[in-house]
Amino acid sequence: MERPASTDVWVIVAAYREAKVIANVVADVKRTGHHVVVVDDGSPDQTAERAAQAGAVVIRHPINLGQGAALQTGLDYALAQGANVLVTFDADGQHRAADIAGLIDALVRDGADFALGSRFLGSAVNLPAQRRLLLKAAVWFTRLTTGLSITDSHNGLRAMTRHGASHIHLRQNRMAHASEILHQIAVSGLKYVETPVTIHYSAYSLAKGQTLFDALLIILDLFARRLHR
Amino acid sequence: MIAQLLLTLMLFTILLYATMTYRQAPIIGLLTVIAASWGLYFVWFPSHATRLAELVGINRGVDLILYTWVVISLIMLLNLHLKMRAQLELITLLARKIAIADALRASEPRPKDGTVPLTPSRPGDERVWT
Description:
The complex is a heterodimer of chains A (229) and B (130).
Chain A (H helix, E strand, L loop, with lengths): L8 E7 L6 H9 L4 E6 L6 H7 L3 E4 L6 H14 L4 E6 L8 H12 L3 E12 L3 H18 L11 E4 H4 L11 H12 L3 E9 L2 H6 L3 H16 L2
Parallel strand pairs in A: 1-2, 1-4, 2-3, 5-7
Antiparallel strand pairs in A: 4-6, 5-6
Chain B lengths: L1 H21 L3 H19 L1 H11 L4 H46 L10 E2 L9 E2 L1
Antiparallel strand pairs in B: 1-2
């Protein structure tokens, strides 16, 4: 793949109740020169308004559907707008916009269709020990179920080519979408690479993070999905 | 005899339901067919049910039939859950279409006063201007 122009890159931010931080996140990403689309997942607060004021294209779900559903909406929209590279980026401020360049470099340099951010190749600032353990267990589970050789399975910072994105069809509306994406990457047989990124945990992002109970729900969701077509 | 006929009718209805379910959820369909067939067999051969019940420590054949019924009910509950998930997928597709259509409409040229249009997706919302 040739190096894309800044305007060929669309950064997709799925947001729910992120009015406190979304403007800063959008402003940070806008400095890269890429398009930013915020999918507001039916937030009852000012998330959509703040994102629009900060310069993002805002898509609003009429009802709350979940992060997976919001990401797929963003992917569909960006593909329809002619995006050549699509980046998914968390709305809670724990990602660094500076890492987007590294992901795109990896797509170009390695000819991959997916560049997956890894906090365990890069760094995870203020990551609590319990969360680290949970993430390691998720990596082990993902390796076992998908066969992908990865070091980080639930990192929302990833980039994909247009071709790669066309192979992603998320049906897990909620948090299980992270595992579903990896499963679909494995099924597609397309090339993926991992890229070091920095995740900065704040009290705000930790409060929104996943717990052991969420992890169990994710496993149940993945299991239930296998039971019907 | 009346109880046997009633149970048979109900279990045949469940078998029919299972075959209809099979296309959407093969595993559920198969489990329901097995459980319902098992139930039918014991309804008409209660002595076998009693023997099997004693073998597995339940004591009475009638209890075994009740347990079978509980299993069938649980499988059907699971199936209802899966149907709800399928409905949610349809709702998601619909909401996505609406959200993207609204966003495309909002990206049309802005009013001269420079306000930013947002999409009126939420029920009761008028067009939001900021």
